[in-house]
Design a protein that fits this description.
The protein is mainly α. The chain has one domain: Four Helix Bundle (Hemerythrin (Met), subunit A) (Up-down Bundle). Helices cover 80% and strands 0% of the residues. It has five helices and no strands. It has helices at residues 2-23, 28-45, 55-78, 83-104, 110-135. It is globular, with a radius of gyration of 19 Å. The termini are far apart. The model is unreliable at 15-24 (pLDDT under 50).
Length: 140
């Protein structure tokens, strides 16, 4: 009997661990850290000329933007966000989505469009971080 209870407990803990790791991120901070990594992937490729980038670079930009948009969707659905954060999150999803969609289409003007949306993506992320810093009482 004790063996069965022990095994059931082990199976239960294993299932909880797997579902917690695979189902969602643990906090908004983890989602932002994941998005920040993806943001840096795009940032590393933004200074190149179109002829210096290859298809793998465009796939990297597309994947990074898709991950950022998905993280914002997760943040909206899993965590309690206020109206300001919800609007900023929608902006991040919009600009990240435009970057991802643009990387799927033709290459003419792609760098300019990605750069334009990347700038607004940067501003959206920065404004969210400034709101949190202000609410935490760190900023004057």
């Amino acid at each position: 009997m004790l063996k069965k209870v022990f095994m059931a407990g082990v199976v239960f803990l294993f299932a909880c661990t797997i579902s917690a790791k695979g189902y969602c991120q643990g906090s908004v901070k983890e989602l932002c850290a994941s998005s920040a990594k993806e943001f840096q992937k795009i940032n590393q490729l933004k200074g190149f000329m179109p002829d210096q980038l290859n298809d793998a670079d465009y796939k990297t930009i597309q994947h990074a933007a898709e991950v950022m948009a998905a993280n914002e969707g997760t943040r909206q659905s899993k965590f309690n966000v206020d109206a300001n954060t919800m609007n900023i999150s929608k902006l991040v999803q919009t600009h990240a989505g435009r970057i991802a969609d643009r990387c799927k289409s033709d290459k003419v003007g792609l760098i300019e469009d990605v750069g334009h949306n990347f700038r607004f993506l940067f501003l959206s992320c920065r404004s969210c971080h400034q709101i949190y810093v202000t609410e935490a009482g760190v900023a004057p």
